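Support request, priority: normal
Reporter: lab tech (M.K.)
Component: structure prediction queue

Hi team, I submitted a job for histidine kinase from Methanolobus vulcani yesterday, and the status page still shows it as pending. I've pasted the exact input below so you can check whether something in the sequence is tripping the parser. The sequence length should be 562 residues. Please let me know if I need to resubmit or if it's stuck on your end.
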Amino acid sequence: MNERNLTPDESNKTIIRLVARTFLVFITLSFLLVPCAGANSTMELKVGVYPNEPLISQDQNGTAVGLYAEILESIATKEGWELRYIPGTLEQCYQRLDNNSIDILPAVPYIPEIEQHYILTSEAPYTDWGIVYTYKGSGISSMNDLSGKRIAHVDDIFYENFNASPGNGNTSYVFIETESYMQIFELVERREVDAGIIARSYGELHETQFNLQKIPFVISPTDMVFALSEETDPAVSEKIDQDIRQMVLEDGNIQYLSNKEENNAENLATWESPSWLKFSVGIGGGLLLIFLILSLTLKNKVEEKTYELNSKNRELEVEIRERKIAEEKLKQYSLELKNSNELKDLFTDILRHDLINPATVIKGYVEFLIEVEDEPRKKDAMEAIERNNKKLIELIENAANLAKLENMDDMSFKTLDLKEIIEEVIEHLIPKLEEKDMNITFNPSAKYPADVNTTIEDVFSNLIGNAIKYSPSGSNINIDVKDVDDTWEITISDEGEGIPDEEKPYVFDRFKRAHKVNIKGTGLGLAIVKRIVDLHEGTVEVFDRTDRQGTTFKVTLQKTKI
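Reply from support: The job had stalled in the queue. We restarted it manually and it finished. Here are the results:
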């Protein structure tokens, strides 16, 4: 198709029509902007401030400072909120949350007692815990060394949890209450007390000022979140969580707008101009555009190319930013994983050494007292102590075992006969079977060779033991092994009351178990079963029996590779 060249007269008419249409569009948009000028309103939020350095506090000028104040200021700038800070003690702030005279209280522990009364955010910018400091040369290096010592504290969650710990009930401590963490540091340094409990956040900020040392265990790790009153708009909590998740993470720290230049830039981006200014800019812009179009018509082709180049540059900039954010998130995840593993190792060491030893000592003394006690009431009480201590030892051993298994990525295997393993487990459980007058039906037809680790015995011991525990007296347990392709399918079926369908998906989760009347447990046994089977690259399932009432657990393991 041949293109016709426009005459100068036609070109002028085309430009005039373009200018007229553009002018009309600007006039229309200018009038539309007038009623929208006051549409956005600023939300005012009242924020409680209490002394909790360095998370939240007030400086000498009465300005709210600290990690949580800066995070909240950054979020408020982005969301267009106006914050009004109301200072007081922690107790006063909680009372103001109760009577709805403040909307938000920063840096509160995420614990059930507080969650029952207030709306808590789910994202925690910081996790705090208690640390015990002592002076150098005190001879205190573990929790056991604190017995009979003078311990300084403030009335906080870490002292409460330390004092309420089950293992501390029979331990003699001399608690000395103080008014501040700084006073604790000073008392310990002057050796007027032997040790002091201080929040990690405050301790890491001020510990370099004193010649002290830390005891290597942690007290009550707690996520510190924002609490909202019940009458505060729930959307505020959602916005806080959303904005915290979107903040760029670097070296384990949340990056937010914290200097004046950044705040000014953010404020400039969200400033709402008055209606008269919008109207004037619209009219003036329309008139100015008439002259700009006339002068830039001949440069149209150059502008198109420039726009294309700018668009490509912006796309490259966005891609670079996204890659940088992804790298920072991977770096943060790696750091969090390292810290999590270190904390888990510390917890496992405490379980294996600091908790199991006193529980074992209790077991020996109680067994001796039962043998020599003749008074029935005292003997019944000691037998109750013995039963509960056995449960405590089982809990500690299971928790330590599970923590060890979760730290393992693989394990060594050798060829073992599943038939012999199952028969050995049954033999160990004969006293429990006789106690409930129960039978186990297991008729192996041959050997069942499989490449397994010796921990597989714990799987069958746990599943068969549960079948005995949750089945009625006089019932029967069926164990069967089937050859299915390259695997062995081992099923263990009981005649108990069964597991409701809604609870089956959670039976292998830690600290979750099906509801059983008059039966208590830690919920760790099946979690250990699942972890061991996963390390064997096998599967474990649970379903109802089809022939009668009861539950069947099925474990699938790989055969020995020939």
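The chain has a mean pLDDT of 80. The first strand starts at residue 43 and ends at 49. Let us know if anything else looks off. Ticket resolved.
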